[in-house]
Task: inverse folding
């Protein structure tokens, strides 16, 4: 599908999947190899899922996150093992997608809205410094909204309402692109023009 970008004044981008290539199954495999019990992307134990959610909302620190995962581990592991396994799902961010962001920044008000966490952001920033000689993605957007810094996450209405109200955005003039149906539905309830990016069929570069 081709999106007519000039129909919108504002574009809100998701990060993982939409801009940054990810493969969550790699993290599942890495944690399984470490001996973390019950870690499965389709059936994560309820208590473990709670840990991930709390971490993405910044309600527990990176140290707490690591320590709680150690409690599910059959073997003795160190922090660097956990970070490596957790970051293994993060792949690459193609130059063409960075170019697309800079192009839209000249013609639209652009924002990043991501459910993420400190360990992942630190890893991504190191990747950006190494591969593109930029400290982070802040230069590619008017403003970035990261769940762990805000204490809220998609698909909750409050995080979408924050982006809209802080920047005085009209939801009918705002396009939101995400690879999660749940997040798309959350945005749509507020009148945001939301597009589900089906990663099995397309990439962000196919839309414009």
Result:
């Amino acid at each position: 599908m081709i999106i007519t970008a000039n129909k919108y004044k504002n574009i809100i981008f998701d990060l993982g999947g939409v801009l940054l290539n990810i493969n969550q199954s790699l993290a599942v495999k890495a944690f399984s190899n470490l001996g973390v019990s019950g870690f499965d992307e389709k059936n994560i134990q309820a208590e473990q899922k709670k840990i991930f959610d709390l971490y993405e909302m910044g309600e527990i620190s990176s140290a707490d996150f690591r320590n709680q995962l150690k409690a599910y581990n059959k073997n003795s592991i160190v922090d660097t093992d956990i970070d490596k396994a957790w970051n293994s799902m993060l792949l690459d961010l193609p130059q063409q997608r960075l170019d697309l962001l800079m192009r839209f920044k000249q013609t639209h008000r652009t924002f990043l809205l991501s459910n993420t966490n400190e360990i992942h952001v630190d890893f991504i920033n190191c990747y950006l410094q190494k591969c593109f000689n930029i400290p982070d993605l802040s230069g590619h957007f008017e403003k970035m909204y990261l769940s762990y810094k805000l204490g809220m996450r998609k698909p909750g209405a409050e995080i979408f309402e924050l982006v809209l109200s802080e920047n005085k955005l009209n939801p009918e003039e705002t396009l939101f692109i995400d690879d999660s149906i749940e997040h798309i539905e959350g945005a749509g309830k507020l009148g945001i023009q939301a597009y589900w990016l089906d990663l099995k069929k397309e990439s962000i570069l196919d839309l414009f």
About this structure: Residues 24-87 form a domain with the DNA polymerase; domain 1 fold (CATH 1.10.150.240). The longest helix spans residues 118-132. The radius of gyration is 17 Å. The chain has nine helices and five strands.
